[in-house]
Each structure stands twice: as structure tokens, then as C-alpha cells.
């Protein structure tokens, strides 16, 4: 079972429902921009991955074309590294460490994914909010110009 994490946006479901009512152009523009923002996060994530396991885990992530910037990985797929560990095992091991003292210490803060999200997340959120604001401004101004012309 996947565990979601990230930046909490209050009433995001209501916002997405409203966006869908604005039409396909608004939704498509939002999805395209969200995909670009998620791709930028993956680029930063890949550069933050400093070990071979972290790099393999980071490369397994993919961008989902959604109304919000969204990334994920197929947790049960085998990686081909680290004794055939699954991607989920590889990610959590590379991110949080091992209980075995020979492999280093465990961390709750993470090694590459969560630190990247914490340090850059506000910028990604602001970029997404800017897109949403732009879409709403353009959509509402179209509606206002149509109403004025009618």
C-alpha cells in the first residue's frame, strides 16, 4: 500500500472539482503545468540521490499526469540491484537507512527524497498555486468578457 506524503493543501478536492467545471482547456493547462513541476522535482531528486541505491530508487520514480504535481514508483517491481530488492524496499532503505549497524544508522529525516521535498517544496507549491491562479484568472476573464458582450 502506498503512503502519500507531501504538502497539504486544504480543500484541494473542492479546488479540483471547480477546475473541472471550468472546462477541458483549464484542466489540460493545469495538468501540463503540474507535470512540468513534478518533472522539476524529479530532476532535483535525482541530483540529491548520492548513493547507488538512492540513484536507482530515484530513477524508478515517474511523473503522473494529474491536476496536482504527482510522482510515484512501482513499489513491488524488482530493481536488478541490491540483491534483487523491490523498488519500495530499495527506496525506504536508501531514504531511511538500515537497522543493521554495518550499513550505517537509521534516520527519520530521510536522505534524499524528504530533504528535497522539505527544501524545495515551498517553491513547487508556489509554482502550482501560480498556475491555478493564472488558469482561474483567464477562465473568469473569458466569462466576464462574454457576459459584458452579451
What does this structure look like?
The chain has one domain (22-142). 18% of the residues are buried. The chain has 150 residues and is mainly alpha-helical. Residues 144-150 have low confidence and may be disordered. The chain is elongated, with a radius of gyration of 19 Å. The chain starts with 11 loop residues before the first helix and ends with a helix. α2 (24-48) packs antiparallel against α3. The protein has five helices and two strands, in the order αααββαα. A two-stranded antiparallel sheet has the order 1-2.
Number of helix segments?
5
Query: What is the average of the pLDDT values?
Result: 80
Largest sheet: 2 strands, antiparallel
Q: What kind of oligomer do you see?
A: single chain
Strand content: under 5%
Structural class: mainly alpha
Series of H and E elements = HHHEEHH
The gyration radius over C-alpha positions equals 19 Å
The tally of strands reads 2
**What does the overall shape look like?**
elongated
Helix content: 55-70%
- Cα distance, first to last residue? 52 Å
Spans of at least 5 consecutive residues with low confidence: 144-150
Total domains: 1
The largest beta-sheet arranges its strands as: 1-2
Produce a short descriptive summary:
The protein is mainly alpha-helical. The protein is built from five helices and two strands; from the N terminus they run αααββαα. It has helices at 12-21, 24-48, 52-60, 87-96, 113-149, and strands at residues 62-64, 70-72.
Amino acid at each position: 500500500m502506498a503512503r502519500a506524503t507531501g504538502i497539504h493543501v486544504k480543500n484541494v478536492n473542492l479546488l479540483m472539482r471547480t477546475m473541472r467545471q471550468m472546462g477541458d482547456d483549464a484542466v489540460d493547462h493545469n495538468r501540463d503545468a503540474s507535470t512540468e513541476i513534478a518533472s522539476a522535482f524529479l530532476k532535483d531528486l535525482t541530483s540529491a540521490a548520492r548513493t547507488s541505491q538512492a540513484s536507482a530508487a530515484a530513477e524508478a520514480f515517474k511523473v503522473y499526469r494529474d491536476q496536482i504535481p504527482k510522482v510515484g514508483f512501482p513499489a513491488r517491481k524488482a530493481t536488478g540491484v541490491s540483491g534483487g530488492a523491490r523498488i519500495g524496499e530499495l527506496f525506504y532503505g536508501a531514504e531511511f537507512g538500515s537497522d543493521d549497524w554495518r550499513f550505517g544508522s537509521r534516520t527519520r529525516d530521510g536522505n534524499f527524497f524528504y530533504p528535497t521535498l522539505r527544501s524545495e517544496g515551498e517553491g513547487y507549491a508556489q509554482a502550482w498555486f501560480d498556475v491555478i491562479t493564472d488558469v482561474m484568472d483567464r477562465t473568469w476573464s473569458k466569462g466576464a468578457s462574454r457576459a459584458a458582450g452579451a
